[in-house]
Amino acid sequence: MSNPYHINYAHWSGIHSVPVAIIFAVLYIPLLGWFVRQSFARPTYVHFVLSLFCAIRIAAFGIRAALAGLDSAGENLSLLIADQVLSGVGFFGLLYSAYTLVLDLEQRTGRPAPTSPLLRITRNRHAFRAALMAAVVLGIVSATLTNTDGSTSDTSKSLRKASIIIFLVLTILQAFQTLVLVRMEVAEKNTNKHSDVSFGARHAMPILLLVSLLLLVREAFTAATINNGLKQNNERFWYPLIALPEILAVTLYATPGLVPRRDELSP
């Protein structure tokens, strides 16, 4: 989009640090290599999606570095919108991977389907994915409604709030699903049965709980700053409360043996 006001949208929105953006982009490169390798060695939905997530984050942090360091990039509204869109699209993959992995691990136990209506709803992958897609679409539309003078319309703000709320609710549901699985495992003392399997399989429950906590931290901060976009994008908060929880969660997913193979999902 043209910029008749010569506004540096990146600096105005809180994007300033080139080195930190580059560091995060570089940190994602070995993670991308790991998940691409796992996608061939142990092909699963989770590995495929996390490979895509890492690639998206490398691109996003590359764009963010350009926005912070180059005036021509910072004054390009389309580039800033691209950064915002990649952020929402990427989190879709991260959250859905967490949700899918918990359901896959529960499926591997061979337990009967729950009778509780609430648990059946939380286990509906199609509904969860549809809600996630709705949140992403709302976020994308909100970002594209940014005016060339840097302001946002009431419609854009409303769509952004709706997207954030949906993401928060789904993140809470994913954490709830994880707690249900952990409670079942503890009750049956399954965590002590597999001393001969991989580290990831033996310690799946605490790892999944930590992943859920990291995702909750990210979304809790986003929701807490729902009416203050400038504070939300302030790098003093954005990196430790959004970027860091994401990369830590992805690193935990790289624990060997955490994600089961497809042939392990049939009890």
TrEMBL record:
Keywords: Membrane, Transmembrane, Transmembrane helix. The keyword Membrane applies. The keyword Transmembrane applies. The chain crosses the membrane at residues 12-36, 48-70, 85-105, 164-182, 203-226, 238-259. This is RTA1 like protein. It comes from Hebeloma cylindrosporum.
